[in-house]
Amino acid sequence: MILNYVREEPAAGNHAGNKARRDVDKIFERRGYVAVENIIETRFNSTLEKIKYTFNRETWKKIFRLRRLVRLNAVAQFPVYGNKLMRAALNNFFGRNHMIFIVHDLDALRHFGTASTADEIKRLNRARALIVHNERMMGALFGLGVRTPMIPLELFDYLLDNPPPPRLLDNRNKIIFAGNLNKSIFLRLLEPIRAEFNLYGPIADSKIFGANINYVGSFAPDEIPYKLDGGFGLIWDGDSVETCTGAFGRYLTLNNPHKLSLYIAAGLPVVTWKEAAIADFIIKNDIGFVVDSLRELPSKLQSITDARYQQLLDNVARLQSKVIEGFYTNRALEQAERMLRRE
How many angstroms separate the CA atoms of 1 and 21, rounded? Predict the structure, then answer.
């Protein structure tokens, strides 16, 4: 089935959001979908730049082209990023066509009902199908009033041309954390934990960390899988080592963090919070372990033999080949296409 899609060009940056959306676009293209428009994420450094963009002929050509398209079978990534003018044009386009949305993040869930989310839920309900992170997210969205058929993605893909070299047993007791280090407050509280940590990602001041933490650097998303050095990738959020706390911690109970895909693409076993939505996936596929508190890390690491760690590596390798080739996104899109055919 040939679908139309809205091609994206996210702003440059060394963060997972860009990688996730670029990979989805690449999978659309590989499946032979037809791009109806190319949307470039535009960031303005001044009011003058915004005015120039608003009155630019090419901007309005795109808007008018989108307005002429009606009753197409189309797929797009949700939410829409970019400037206000183009978001409005795209939302208008979505309302006039038969849409499948691949959902990345939702304010309705990140704010847990504390923000006005009626418009977001309304847009989701106008779609023909939604590809969402997992079954927990499906349940949460149903509770907020979403009635569009939903498909669990299970895992975001992480496209790579070549897999990183196989992991060795060396340094297997070192914990890797990759992400936005500025917002990960718990990292500043790791010094009393008798374990070593290697950190990757943007940070304003790496000197705030304890002696057991090594800041390695920030790398582009297509480069970082080859740079990760250690035994386990950590997925944790909030401002405590005892449990995952706050809005970020609560969101972890519903979403699939893209860093899970990064770690699997890099061939790394994974550690996460016991209550995280991805804990079920990690346990089912036997690719790591879960903890209530980060204080459990030293004893957990000590209990893992070389043979057990090799078993985890073998299990991750089976998923790695799927993730770097786009298996999960392709599978979900095939399900969504079948839904459209049955209508």
Answer: 22
Hey, what long-range contacts does 131-135 have (CB within 8 A, 24 or more apart)? Answer: 131/100, 131/101, 131/102, 131/103, 131/329, 131/332, 131/333, 131/336, 132/103, 133/103, 133/254, 133/255, 133/256, 133/277, 134/254, 134/255, 134/256, 134/277, 134/278, 134/280, 134/281
What is the DSSP code (8-state) at residue 164?
P
Structure confidence by residue, pLDDT tens digits, 119-156: 889 999 999 999 999 999 999 999 999 999 999 999 99
Q: What does the DSSP 8-state code read for residue 152?
A: E
Per-residue DSSP letter, 133? S
Per the CB < 8 A criterion, the answer to whether 39 and 57 are in contact is no
Tokens (6 digits) for 180: 């936005």
Is-above-0.90 flag for pTM?
yes
C-alpha distance across the termini of the chain, in Å: 14
